[in-house]
Amino acid sequence: MKNQKTLKKLSQLKIGESGVIDSFTDKEMSLKLLEMGCTPGELVTLDKIAPMGDPIAIKVSGYLLSLRKEEASTVLVSMMNKN
Amino acid sequence: MKVEANHSFVNFSETSSIKVALVGNPNSGKSTLFNALTGLHQKTGNFPGVTVDKKSGTAKLSSLVNAEFVDLPGTYSLYPKSLDERVTFEVLCNPENADHPDITIVVADASNLKRNLFLVSQIIDLKIPVILALNMIDLVEKVGDTIDAVRLSEKLGVKVVAISARKKEGIEELRQAILQPLPVPQYDFIDVKKFAGDLIDKIKSVIKVNSDFAAFQIINNYSEIHYFEKKSDKTNKVEAILKSAEVDRNKLQSQESVERYRIINRIASECITQKSAIKTETFTHKLDNILTHKIYGYAIFLLILFFIFQTIFFLAKYPMEWIQDLFVMLSQWAEHTFPAGELTNLFVNGILAGLSGVVVFVPQIALLFAFIAILEDTGYMARVSFIMDKLMRRFGLNGRSVIPLVSGVACAVPAIMSTRTISSWKERIITIMVTPLMSCSARLPVYTLLISLVVPQDKATGFFNYQGVILMCLYLIGFIAAMVAAWIFKIILKAKEKSYFIMELPVYRSPQWKTVGITIVDKVKVFLFDAGKIIVAISVILWFLSSHAPGSKMEAIEKKYATAEMIQKYDAKELDARISSEKLEASYAGVLGKTIEPAIAPLGFDWKIGIALVTSFAAREVFVGTMATIYSAGNKDNSQTVRDKMQNETNPTTGLPVFTLAVSFSLLIFYAFAMQCMSTLAVVYRETKNWKWPALQFLFMSALAYISSFIVYHILK
């Protein structure tokens, strides 16, 4: 386990970047995200950003989920640092 | 891939009927399956007390068994947060609900199995008889993956049938599965007692529920559950238990979700074999690159809007004319066939006129919903929301508000009916409230007539035709007013629920024409029967107001013109025109017009315009006809003569022309903003199920119209 873990907000990912869901900062929002399959430990990839910069679309458990940046900023993802 | 079933058919001694509910995630193909199961034997109604469409249909499963299918609203989970989810929750969790099913079919998108299993697992834990319809199995196989349905069935403890609703594969197996005896699920998917064991036991001692999970749901969602609103001994006890326990509902629910996905992930890894570790929907990905592109995305969207708008505006014109012609023919036939008198008059000018006003909207509604169904079905609508959300959000609207707003330029009635796709309550209400400010096609005849009064036809500077410029400005003003109003509503309206934009972007599919057809029929029916009643009723009232007068004034007018002198003085046409003009003036509508004159005088309007304001409540374009009658212009269809008569009209006291620049512009602005459309109000009521909203809409639009006209009149005077 040489990989070092750094936390980032889901809203800060770049297109094509992936991370593993670590935790949520907003309880109510987390409930909605959990039922959509965004559970801790799940791998998410930022697929696209809407032309006006918001909302964003992420790939999670095999499908595309769109959410607003404000909503994505309540999700913390851990990044696997590549050397 | 098929599940071995225990073949032990039940002997139904006589024809019996079973209730089957269809549940599933949005985009799981639930409606396609519903259509495949019921064919055209379906009807649309409402769930009692809420504005959620209830689709039900029947099918003969065998010579002895009939099934009644109910298509429950699509939902990702059983938490009663939104209205749709609440309906699904209550139908499934409350055995006393009128729609509570004997069997529940959960439709799951096999190509997106994990997320779909979440809802499946919750329904399993309710311990009601369940069949899992594993839909879109063909898509899974196409990419080379396999799902072991037998194993899945064993793991879940419920019957699993693999189907493709689009290709109509597996439907017969599913029908047979319904006929076989179905036990309740064999075991709990998750043990919710881990999280709130004591409480669950306490709740179960007070209320009879099927399962621990049902009790858990009561603990978690008590305040949202509709059927507990009636207070009783039991509800008091439940409340006391919950109060003393101080439950952390968020925590319980999040524990439940995490636990469910933990087991789902395990089951999925045992039942799904993926050919490649990471697969991407390449077609969808490529198409998305274009359709959500910052330039092409908007350009294509604009083109599509333009196409829809043009089609509704121009293509609907012909059937609308045929409908109007048909009703004219019907009226003439009725007038000739039935004895002249009050009853015939009521039938022709009240009821037939009202019906004509209802049916005439059908072509526009049908066309708009054909487009919407195609956009929805292909998955494009989700992308529209995606690229428009940020812009619309600033005004308290939603990415999905775009289509209703634009459709409002053709007609607010179908536009408001199309707001169903907006899931947030607040954003939907705001869209409904402001859509009628967009200049609809019924305003066009009014605009044309009034603009021709202020600007001569041929006046143009280079490329710009002044009449055209004014017309364009009116459309623009309507749009700006809609956005400003939306922004104000955003501030003053309190939201019942938080606005989310957490939604799936489904993969692109080709549209299904059957779905499109069924949507059209549904929407047309809803409009004809729900809103139609109100429109015909108001039409009859308006007919009475404009054809009846206090006392015997009408008879007096007839007598006056029945003399030999009058008949000699005017030809038959002129005579008729004069009689109708005087009758309208004497009628209750005329009285009303004169009564409101002091109120509308500050806007520059006289009582004649007042009458037109009253009668055009039926529909804005009636303004032209009323003006023609008042100025006894004879032929109602000839707007040129109406224009001339209006232009020559002078004020009896001052001798100056009535339709000055100031009055005409004031009237134009009034018609741009005022809520003068009973059909729209009827549809707003039908869509909100509360008279508060159409009333509020009527008031704010009238106030806006009044104030704006006042300002315009006084600036230009």
Radius of gyration of chain A: 12 Å
Largest sheet of chain B: 7 strands, mixed
Q: Which secondary-structure class do the elements of chain A indicate?
A: alpha+beta
How much helical structure, as a percent, in the residues of chain B?
55-70%
Average of pLDDT of chain A: 89
Number of domains of chain A: 1
Write the layout of secondary structure elements.
The complex is a heterodimer of chains A (83) and B (717).
Chain A: E1 5-9, E2 18-24, H1 27-35, E3 43-49, E4 56-60, E5 63-67, H2 69-72, E6 75-80
Antiparallel strand pairs in A: 1-6, 2-3, 2-6, 3-4, 4-5
Chain B: E1 16-24, H1 30-38, E2 42-46, E3 53-60, E4 65-71, H2 83-93, E5 103-109, H3 113-125, E6 130-135, H4 137-142, E7 146-147, H5 149-156, E8 159-162, H6 171-179, H7 193-206, H8 212-221, H9 233-245, H10 249-271, E9 272-273, H11 282-291, H12 296-315, H13 317-337, H14 342-359, H15 362-378, H16 380-393, H17 402-407, H18 412-417, H19 425-434, H20 443-454, E10 460-461, E11 464-465, H21 466-492, E12 503-504, H22 513-547, H23 553-561, H24 564-569, H25 572-586, H26 588-595, H27 597-600, H28 607-615, H29 622-630, H30 639-648, H31 661-673, H32 678-688, H33 692-716
Parallel strand pairs in B: 1-4, 1-5, 5-6, 6-8
Antiparallel strand pairs in B: 2-3, 3-4, 7-9, 10-11
Describe the protein.
The complex is a heterodimer of chains A (83) and B (717). By secondary structure, chain A is an alpha+beta fold. Chain A has one domain: SH3 type barrels (Roll). Chain A is built from 2 helices and 6 strands. Chain A has a 6-stranded antiparallel β-sheet with strand order 1-6-2-3-4-5. Helices cover 60% and strands 8% of the residues of chain B. Chain B has 33 helices and 12 strands. The longest helix of chain B has 35 residues. The N terminus of chain B is likely disordered. At the A-B interface, helix 1 and strand 5 of A face helix 3, helix 10, helix 16 and strand 12 of B. Strand 5 of chain A pairs antiparallel with strand 12 of chain B, so a sheet runs across the interface.
